[in-house]
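User: As part of a screening pipeline, I want to sanity-check one entry by hand. Below is the sequence and the SMILES for adenosine-5'-triphosphate. Please return the complex as structure tokens so I can compare it with the automated output.
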Amino acid sequence: MNAIEIRDLEKHYPGFTLDRVNLTLPSGCILGLVGENGAGKSTTIRLILNMMKNDGGSIRVLGAEQDENFSKVKEQIGVVLDDMGFPSCMTARQIGKMMKQLYRNWDEAMYQKTLKWLAVPMDKSFEKYSRGMKMKQSIAVALSHHPKLLILDEATSGLDPVVRDSFVDAVMDFTRDEECSVLISSHIVSDLERMCDYIAFMHEGKLLLCEEKDVLMERYGVIHVTNEQMEELDPEAILGKRISPYGVEAVADRTKIPEGFSVNPVSLEELFVFMVKGEK
Ligand SMILES: Nc1ncnc2c1ncn2[C@@H]1O[C@H](COP(=O)(O)OP(=O)(O)OP(=O)(O)O)[C@@H](O)[C@H]1O
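Assistant: Here is the complex for your manual check:
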């Protein structure tokens, strides 16, 4: 089964169009969304969560269409968004009590354990939290009602490097159960490179690609060539290039590069930047 299936999804805002996005997240996998500011990641995530209406296309989440029964599905989704809407006067202890009423699967022991792991104080009010603490509070709630799907919008960006590292491990642990899946957007592409099975690149409301990470890493690489060598290469082989006085650095499709060229591994971050920014 697929945890998320998006077909031809559209959303129109003045000056922005989410343009017929197709995306599939297979169960048991982690899909990372990469895109520049304003690319449409949060819009896609909010549409998946049925927080607003789409203008076209369809979304299935955990096998269900977004009809009136979606509230049952929502109970199986652990969500971390920028603004979770926790009442500002509440403490972690009080938020836990509130969540117990909302989620049938609420696991108070897991909540306490996660708060402890993330060093979130039990009795400080939410309005006095630092940005990272707010993120950690959301993560603790998201992990404590035994969801089948985690949807994490920029969940790692406010975390310090040590916590981020163990959070990435926790997300990977979560998908050890084949029924549990994760959709995560992040500007910290190295985190996604570590944890994701699938990567989707979004740019200006369009999906540039959605592919298995290992396939991407195997297929594309970085070459350093002279201007003359570049002229001889198949333009289709070049995703993006950067010209300097010392020659040309380019991200290339290994399958379209003749033998004899040295092709070095590419990072996901380089791949995205070259695709979006590199002069074609
Ligand atoms: N409620 C809204 N009304 C009008 N335009 C909106 C609304 N919400 C989002 N947009 C626009 O939609 C576009 C996509 O925004 P979105 O928040 O999805 O981007 P994003 O990829 O998540 O960016 P970031 O990385 O900065 O969080 C932007 O141009 C934004 O201004």
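Points to compare against the pipeline: The longest strand covers residues 2-13. The CA atoms of residues 44 and 204 lie 12 Å apart.
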